[in-house]
Write a structure and sequence with these properties.
heterodimer; A: 164 residues; mainly alpha; 7 helices; 70% helix; globular; B: 235 residues; 8 helices; 0% strand
C-alpha cells in the first residue's frame, strides 16, 4: 500500500488527529498524555508493594489506582498504532543509543519529564492540544513554561553538542 | 455518560490511529519546539499550528453550544515550574510523552528507557507530594477549586463567553487568526530561507564554473606553449 511506502505530510497527519480529537472532546475529553502514565506508574507500584501504596496520600487522594482509566488506553493505543505502522512499512528495527552520554541525558530527561508533568498537572499535549484550543487562560501560562523550558534545554543541549 | 470500558475502547482506537499517523509522518512534538529553536526548521511546528487552529475552531465552536468536556483544574506557578522542567527534559530525552510511545513502538530502546524514567519521575513526585502535601496546591490536585487568585485554569472560552455575553467561538476565531498569523510568518521565513539557499547554490555554481574555465584556459595555454615549443625540441 502506498500509505506505508511514503512518509506522510505531518500537516495532513496532525489535521486528521485534530478532527478525531474534536470527536473525543465531545464524548470524553480532549487528548491528553501524562494522566495515563501516572496511572500506569501507580499500577506498577501497586504490583510491586501492594496496598502499602495507599499509605502515600497521593495515591489515595489525587490518583486512586484503577485500571479502567481511559487515558491509559490512549497511550497503549499510540504504542500499538506506531508498532503496526512501523512493521507494515518495514521500519521496525531495534535502535539502541550508542554512547553512555546519550543514556545519561535520556535518563535525566525522563526524570525531569515525569516530575514536571505531575508538578504542573499537565504535559505538552494537554497544553498545546487541550488547554490552548479551549482557550483556557492557564494554557497561556502553561505554554510560556514549556517554551522557556524547551529554550533553556536547547541551549544546554547545544553547549553539550559543541563540547563533544 | 459512557461506561468506563467504552471510554477505554474509544481511547484505544483514538490512540492507535494517532500513533499510526505519527509514525508515518515522523511528527514529534519535541521537534516542533526544538527544531524551531535550534535549527530554524519548521516542519513539525507548522503541523502543530495547523492542528491547533483546527482544534481551536472545533473546541470553541462546540463550547458555544455547551457541548464537550473542557479541562478544568487550578493553575498556578506550579504549572509554569513543572512545564519548565518538562521542556528541558523533553529536549534532553529527544522525545516527549507522545513520541516516547511512538518511538518505542518502532523499536527504539532509548525511548523506552526515557518512558521508564518518566514513570520513576512521576513516582518521585508522588513521594514529595505525599511527604509535605505540597502546600501551594494541595486541593487543586483533587479537582476542588482552591486559591481564588489563581483561577486561570477555570477560565476558558466558555466561561469568558458567559462573562462577556458572546459565544465562545468569537474568542476561538480571534485565537485562530493569531495562530494563522504565526503560520504565515513561518511560511515567509521558509521562503526567505529558500531564496538564500538558492542564492548560495548559484554563487557556488558560478565559482565552480569560473574555476573550471580558468583551468581550461590554463590547459589550452599550456597546450599552445607545448605546441609552439614542439618544433624546437624536434630540431
Amino acid at each position: 500500500m502506498e500509505f506505508f511506502k511514503k512518509t506522510l505530510d505531518p500537516i495532513i497527519a496532525l489535521a486528521a488527529i485534530a478532527v478525531l480529537d474534536i470527536f473525543m472532546f465531545l464524548i470524553m475529553g480532549a487528548w491528553t498524555v501524562g494522566g495515563g502514565e501516572t496511572m500506569m506508574t501507580g499500577l506498577i507500584a501497586k504490583g510491586m508493594i501492594g496496598d502499602e501504596l495507599e499509605r502515600l496520600p497521593f495515591w489515595s487522594i489525587v490518583f486512586p489506582v484503577h485500571g479502567d482509566y481511559w487515558k491509559i488506553y490512549i497511550s497503549l493505543g499510540m504504542l500499538f498504532g506506531a508498532f503496526v505502522g512501523a512493521v507494515l512499512s518495514k521500519e521496525f528495527y531495534w535502535r539502541v543509543p550508542r554512547h553512555l552520554s546519550e543514556w545519561v541525558l535520556i535518563t535525566l530527561g525522563g526524570l525531569l519529564m515525569g516530575f514536571g508533568i505531575r508538578l504542573a498537572y499537565i504535559c505538552n499535549v494537554s497544553t498545546f492540544f487541550g488547554l490552548m484550543p479551549e482557550m483556557n487562560m492557564g494554557g497561556y501560562l502553561a505554554m510560556s513554561g514549556i517554551l522557556a523550558g524547551a529554550w533553556v534545554g536547547s541551549l544546554i543541549y547545544k553547549k553539550l553538542l559543541e563540547a563533544e | 455518560m459512557m461506561s468506563p470500558v467504552a471510554e477505554c475502547f474509544v481511547a484505544f482506537i483514538f490512540g492507535s490511529v494517532a500513533g499510526l499517523l505519527m509514525q508515518r509522518s515522523r511528527f514529534c512534538n519535541t521537534a516542533a519546539l526544538r527544531d524551531a529553536i535550534m535549527f530554524k526548521t519548521y516542519r513539525n511546528t507548522k503541523a502543530m499550528l495547523v492542528a491547533m487552529m483546527i482544534l481551536t475552531i472545533g473546541f470553541t465552536g462546540f463550547m458555544s453550544l455547551g457541548a464537550g468536556h473542557p479541562l478544568q483544574f487550578d493553575v498556578g506557578l506550579n504549572t509554569f515550574a513543572g512545564l519548565f522542567l518538562f521542556g528541558i527534559g523533553m529536549v534532553f530525552a529527544g522525545a516527549c510523552t507522545v513520541s516516547t510511545w511512538v518511538k518505542t513502538g518502532e523499536g527504539n530502546l532509548g525511548a523506552l528507557w526515557a518512558l521508564l524514567f518518566t514513570f520513576v519521575g512521576m513516582f518521585l513526585f508522588s513521594l514529595v507530594w505525599s511527604a509535605s502535601w505540597w502546600p501551594p496546591a494541595p486541593q487543586t490536585m483533587t479537582g476542588q477549586i482552591n486559591a481564588p487568585a489563581l483561577q486561570l485554569g477555570f477560565a476558558n472560552a466558555q466561561t469568558l463567553g458567559q462573562k462577556f455575553g458572546v459565544p465562545a467561538i468569537v474568542f476561538g476565531l480571534v485565537q485562530t487568526v493569531v495562530l494563522f498569523g504565526l503560520y504565515r510568518a513561518i511560511l515567509k521565513r521558509e521562503h526567505a530561507q529558500r531564496l538564500e539557499h538558492e542564492r548560495h547554490e548559484l554563487e557556488h555554481a558560478r565559482k565552480k564554473a569560473e574555476k573550471a574555465a580558468r583551468k581550461a584556459a590554463r590547459e589550452t595555454a599550456a597546450k599552445t606553449t607545448t605546441a609552439a615549443t614542439e618544433p624546437a625540441t624536434i630540431n
